[in-house]
Write a structure and sequence with these properties.
Elements (H helix, E strand, L loop, with lengths): L4 H5 L2 E5 L6 H14 L3 E4 L4 H7 L6 E6 L8 H13 L4 E5 L2 H5 L3 H13 L5 E5 L7 H13 L4 E3 L11 H10 L5 E5 L5 H10 L3 E4 L2 H18 L1
Parallel strand pairs: 1-2, 1-8, 2-3, 3-4, 4-5, 5-6, 6-7, 7-8
Helix pairs in contact: 4-6, 7-8, 8-9
Length: about 230
């Protein structure tokens, strides 16, 4: 599936969204991202300028989260936060869908909020977190179709702060429902190489994890062991 460690690292968004994350933690995250060639770092909005500065000479994207982790803010708040993040240099935005509105079947309001968010932050990648652990399978499919139809680049499984994280089952539902218009990012509880491979096999093309270093090191160790046995 992956020919080498860099190919693997290029699907990983190296993440630290802990409420206790310090500037030193974010510096360590960026140092690791440079060393392992991760696709991106994912940080809370207050750390976007710092991450942009630390990574300005490297091919590592800076991603941040919007209306995180509940998704229950107003459209104006979502947009204001997103616009500020883009002005600070963020390359990608992961926004939490208003889960309550969607579950209430107010699809028009759900779509309108996401359309405004996307329209007013051009030039960056948009990922929409549907927090799949709160949804039925039918709702997961419906949310993924909605996300694809409003023009988002990715539909994402989870915040990592809900009662459940990513599953291969959910990824398959989301991939099928997005009908090629949006890709799938799996995030939440992905801590091992085998779990990552399961998500990719199910259809995820991007992985959000705080365990990126351990996963890549596991890949290297496994490949070295296989090479030694040949």
């Amino acid at each position: 599936m992956f020919g080498n460690a860099i190919e693997l690292a290029q699907v990983i968004e190296h993440t630290n969204l802990k409420p206790t994350a310090t500037p030193a933690d974010i510096k360590a995250l960026c140092d690791e991202a440079r060393h392992y060639s991760f696709y991106a770092v994912v940080v809370n909005p207050c750390y976007v300028p710092m991450a942009v500065e630390l990574l300005k000479d490297y091919d590592v994207k800076v991603c941040t989260v919007i209306d995180f982790p509940l998704g229950a803010s107003t459209t104006a708040s979502k947009v204001m936060e997103a616009v500020e993040a883009v002005r600070s240099g963020a390359d990608e935005l992961d926004v939490v869908m208003n889960i309550g509105l969607f579950k209430a079947q107010d699809y028009e309001a759900s779509a309108r909020q996401l359309k405004d968010f996307i329209l007013l932050t051009p030039g960056v990648a948009h990922k929409v977190i549907i927090e799949a652990c709160y949804l039925t399978d039918a709702e997961k499919a419906g949310a993924s179709r909605l996300v694809a139809e409003v023009g988002a680049d990715f539909v994402k499984t989870s915040t990592g702060f809900g009662p459940g994280g990513a599953t291969a089952h959910d990824v398959r539902i989301m991939k099928d429902a997005a009908i090629g218009k949006a890709s799938v990012k799996a995030s939440g509880g992905i801590k091992t190489l085998d779990t990552l491979l399961d998500m990719v096999d199910a259809g995820a093309t991007r992985i959000g994890t705080s365990s990126g270093v351990a996963i890549v090191e596991e890949f290297i160790l496994r490949n070295n062991k296989l090479a030694g046995e040949e």
